[in-house]
Specification:
The protein is built from 15 helices and seven strands. It is α/β, with parallel strands linked by helices. The protein has a domain of about 90 residues. The chain has a five-stranded mixed β-sheet, with helices on both faces. Strands 1-2 form a two-stranded antiparallel ribbon. A hairpin with a 2-residue loop joins strand 4 and strand 5. About 5% of the residues have low confidence.
Length: about 475
């Protein structure tokens, strides 16, 4: 090897000339590769556009007539397209009203003939008619009297235990039945406290103060704290957990409600919109699959993670609506949808076959998105998102029981969103805690198919922990 410190001028000039020639050769190679890359990108764009044209030509006429929204994503067209209604699906059972078990019976029979006045007796049933009525609700006030008695043998004064935990909470006077009704009206019916107060006075003549109603509902939430803690433990042991978040105001300050849901559990927590809310419930040792949207707070999760395809396809649909005349955009969008459709069709069978389907889908999506990163075009942002989340887009193919969408979390949040639109949020930390506990409790009972009033009454009447 030549010692550059002791080389002659002639030897150094020779080395410089050789390096110059090498750099020139590499620049020519780079130019050729760039030209070839530009040509391939143009070919891919042309092929993608042809795919879009072919798919549009193969679409049914009624779909071609449907207008697509233009402008900002998410905006609906001002006038809905007119299309024929599909045939009505036949019901699995008859549409007739089901008769209820009769609790009373009134016999209607004539005692005399309306024409001649002859007495009538016996007869057969001609027809029946069901009338449903609700008797006026009645307030029952029970006075519990404790009698002190003296023992004739030892002289001890005996008084019954004052514990009434089976009928009322603590030292209060609102029984479990009324407390359950107040909680149902507040959480299930989403009625304001003032409306509940007026409703009780109208139907029963019972006048409760606002503080009494608030305290009763908060007492139900306090009694349910151990139950909600058990829900969190069950979620940590679940194979699949859906997460989502929505805005919520507490005392005029912005915050967020997070939902952690499974097919049989709904759990809500109030906090910030930061990534530490994810392990706050699922824990660091969670071994299941997390299903969520593309929000950055979920990207730090190191376990199996499935991103929601509905959010992605919705953004792709909005993009095609913004560029209806761009054949490249339309073709690219159709190709992405086709990859997802093939992945859904292959998400069954043996695990080895599912792995092959997943790898092919990831490779196809990567091949579709890579050419559109540079130069920047309409679909560049979505291509960047797809490539960033590529490893978490097809987990549903290889993991049984994992859906491709986060619709479960969206449905879980809907009652909370409706309550927020009605009330605007809560006024204090105590109110927020009560709301989160009741939303978790009643949401879980709802998906489990339990009667919320009966479940709440059973909770209050059970032995205190």
């Amino acid at each position: 090897m030549l010692d550059l410190y002791h080389a002659t001028r002639h030897e150094l000039m020779r080395i410089i000339l050789e390096q110059r020639d090498t750099l020139a050769d590499r620049e020519r190679d780079n130019a050729a590769l760039k030209a070839e890359l530009t040509q391939q990108r143009a070919m891919i764009a042309q092929l993608t556009a042809q795919v879009g044209v072919l798919l549009a030509a193969a679409a049914p006429d009624d779909e071609a007539e449907i207008g697509t929204p233009r402008g900002m994503p998410g905006l609906k067209p001002t006038e809905a397209a007119v299309r024929d209604r599909p045939p009505r699906r036949k019901r699995a059972t008859g549409s007739a009203r089901r008769r209820m078990q009769a609790t009373d019976r009134v016999i209607h029979a004539l005692a005399t003939c309306p024409d001649c006045g002859a007495p009538l007796a016996g007869g057969s049933v001609k027809r029946t008619r069901e009338v449903i009525e609700l008797p006026p609700p009645q307030v029952i006030v029970t006075e519990h009297v404790y009698i002190e008695r003296g023992c004739p043998d030892c002289g001890k004064r005996c008084v019954p235990s004052p514990d009434l935990g089976a009928v009322v909470r603590g030292q209060g006077r609102i029984g479990h039945g009324l407390s359950s009704l107040l909680a149902v009206l507040r959480e299930e019916a989403r009625l304001p406290i003032g409306m509940i107060q007026r409703l009780l006075a109208t139907l029963t003549g019972l006048h409760l103060s606002v503080g009494a109603i608030v305290d009763s509902v908060a007492g139900v939430a306090a009694r349910a704290q151990p139950v909600v803690t058990g829900l969190a433990e069950t979620i940590r042991a679940s194979p699949v957990v859906h997460l989502d978040e929505t805005g919520w105001r507490e005392a005029g300050r912005n915050g967020y409600v997070w939902t952690y849901s499974t097919p049989q559990i709904r759990l809500f927590r109030y906090g910030r919109r930061t990534k530490d809310m994810v392990p706050a419930v699922v824990g660091d040792q969670f071994g299941g699959v997390l299903v969520s949207d593309f929000y950055a707070a979920y990207t730090g999760y190191e376990g199996l993670h499935q991103d929601c395809w509905v959010h992605l396809l919705r953004d792709i649909h909005d993009l095609t609506g913004q560029h209806p005349d761009d054949a490249a955009v339309q073709g690219w969008a159709a190709a992405v949808r086709e990859v997802f459709t093939r992945a859904q069709a292959g998400a069954s069978g043996e695990r080895t076959a599912r792995w092959s389907v997943r790898k092919r889908a990831e490779a196809a999506l990567k091949q579709l998105c890579t050419p559109w990163l540079e130069p920047k075009v309409a679909q560049t942002v979505l291509c960047q998102r797809i490539l960033t989340h590529l490893a978490s887009l097809f987990v549903f193919v290889t993991e049984p029981g994992v859906p491709a969408t986060n619709n479960a979390a969206e449905r879980s949040l809907r009652p909370v969103v409706v309550a927020r639109k009605i009330s605007g949020g809560t006024r204090s930390a105590r109110g927020t805690t009560t709301k989160m506990v009741l939303a978790s409790l009643f949401g879980t009972w709802r998906v489990q198919g339990r009667n919320p009033y009966d479940a709440c009454h059973d909770l209050l009447a059970s032995p205190q922990l």
